[in-house]
Specification:
Blueprint (H helix, E strand, L loop, with lengths): L2 H21 L10 E7 L5 E7 L4 H25 L7 E6 L2 H22 L3
Parallel strand pairs: 2-3
Antiparallel strand pairs: 1-2
Length: 121
Amino acid sequence: MSEQRARRYAELIKREISLILLGSVDDVRLKRFTLTRVEVTSDLKLVRVYLSFPGEAAEVAEKFEALQKAAKFIKNKLVGRIRIRYMPEILYFPDVFLEKASRVIDLLNQIEPQREESNPC
């Protein structure tokens, strides 16, 4: 399969999962999220969905539990929305990239005032 086709398929799944979570899932814990990326294997048998939820670690863990419980519902909704011969297995993972980026920005912001104090130009 072409890489371009896999990318298009990943974008389609990303959009549809977002719409399902926002419109069809009744659990309020799953309403605030950032779907950061979707990766599809070249044989279209496996989809990895990376999400980020706001909140403390305990809250995020609770939200991922709710997401795992809703996974079958989401997949069933996808079957009705996407016309494909075989619906792949969908796995959900926390995306810590946003947290790491935020931490790096915080560290850089802490360094900047120290740098200005030591270099009075």
